[in-house]
Design a protein that fits this description.
The chain is of the alpha+beta class. It has two domains: 20-102 and 125-160; 170-313, Rieske Iron-sulfur Protein (3-layer Sandwich), CATH 2.102.10. Helices cover 34% and strands 14% of the residues. The protein contains eight helices and 13 strands. The chain has helices at 20-23, 25-55, 72-98, 116-133, 139-152, 154-159, 216-222, 238-242; strands at 61-64, 68-71, 182-184, 201-206, 224-228, 248-252, 264-266, 271-273, 280-282, 288-291, 300-301, 303-305, 311-313. The strands form four sheets. It has a five-stranded antiparallel sheet, with helices on one face. Strands 7-8-9-10 form a four-stranded antiparallel sheet, with no helix packed on it. The protein is elongated and about 100 Å long. The model is unreliable at 329-333 (pLDDT under 50).
């Protein structure tokens, strides 16, 4: 015997409870001021981000309990971006919750395309609802939101500066010159040939004049690798062989493909490897490319020793360091 389930009536929607801002003009005004204040705070956060990037020195640190040593510039940029984006979101949420229309709408679902009459009616309804949202009647919110959205987009544009300087002539000029001592990195001490054993590799930077501060840009263009081989291992022409000293040869550390740091040396094969795209250079043949996408050898730095026996540069690089461009000859720069 089957049991028939008794049907029940649609209970409908609960009675609508009006918000204070629906019935109180003063509450509406307070909400409008609070929302506008959030948008203004967003603009302040953007200004803080840009000001921190421009005027706070990137090497200033402070100690914060739990966090430890903290970079002031990065902290201020992070706080500024957080305030700028968070307060836009909070303002939009409060606007929707407190001031936008709060009435239930029922829309019947249609399986097929609506008639033109229905579509026209919908367009009319949308325009009416847009008017009800009050953007036209609330110029303070409209203007502060426009201000917040307008300036928050400036932060990513400014932070694009962190991608590095425009190359310009940067890759054609380094701090290496005739007589410049090779300084071990990071010890910043001069180096003698006897400090390197056969098979050893060392990163060096040029000695800077007194009072000149080393920057990330300097390191990016000046880094050089010293490698010591047995003199009989070299397969160089007389000029390139004269650029070595007692089996020590020096190359720019900046890969000629995409500018990555060439840092992997294989003693058995005398090969240098770039870890980014596997360009491989033969040290015994003046860093000739034997594999990978690099288009030219690593620039070689001519070296010798000074009167005190320290390694120095004979001359600057004879070709630009770093990635190859279409304006450059693939072999000479």
């Amino acid at each position: 015997m089957s049991t028939q389930i008794e049907r029940f009536e649609d209970p409908g929607l609960p009675e609508h409870v009006h918000r204070s801002t629906d019935v109180d003009e003063a509450a509406q005004r307070r909400a409008e001021i609070q929302i506008s204040s959030l948008f203004l705070l967003s603009a302040v956060g953007t200004v803080l981000t840009i000001a921190s990037y421009i005027w706070v020195h990137p090497q200033v640190y402070i100690y914060i309990p739990i966090l430890g040593s903290t970079n002031v510039q990065q902290m201020c940029i992070g706080l500024g971006l957080t305030v700028a984006t968070l307060t836009i979101g909070l303002g939009a949420i409060q606007w929707a919750k407190r001031l936008m229309p709060d009435t239930e709408q029922v829309q019947e679902r249609h399986e097929f395309r609506s008639t033109e009459k229905e579509r026209d009616a919908l367009n009319k309804l949308v325009k009416e609802r847009v008017d009800e949202v009050g953007i036209a009647r609330r110029p303070l919110i409209k203007r502060t939101l426009a201000l917040a959205l307008g300036v928050v987009g400036l932060s990513p544009l400014v932070l694009l500066r962190d991608l590095g300087p425009m190359p310009g002539k940067q890759l054609e000029k380094t701090d290496w010159s005739a007589g410049t001592r090779l300084m071990l990195d990071p010890a910043n001490t001069p180096i003698r040939p006897g400090d390197l054993e056969v098979g050893a590799v060392a990163q060096v930077l040029p000695e800077l004049p007194a009072g000149k501060e080393r920057t990330l840009e300097n390191i990016g263009t000046d880094a050089v690798l010293l490698i010591r081989l047995r003199p009989e291992d070299f397969n160089l022409d007389p000029e390139r062989l004269s650029w070595t000293h007692d089996g020590i040869i020096a190359f720019s550390k900046i890969c000629t493909h995409m500018g990555c740091a060439v840092a992997l040396y294989e003693q058995q094969t005398h090969h240098l490897l770039c870890p980014c795209h596997q360009s491989t250079f033969d040290v015994t043949r003046a860093a000739k490319v034997i594999f990978g996408p690099a288009a030219r050898p690593l620039p070689q730095l001519a070296i010798t020793v000074d009167a005190n026996g320290y390694l120095v540069a004979k001359q600057p690089f004879t070709v630009p360091i770093g990635p190859s461009f279409w304006e450059r000859n693939s072999q000479n720069g």
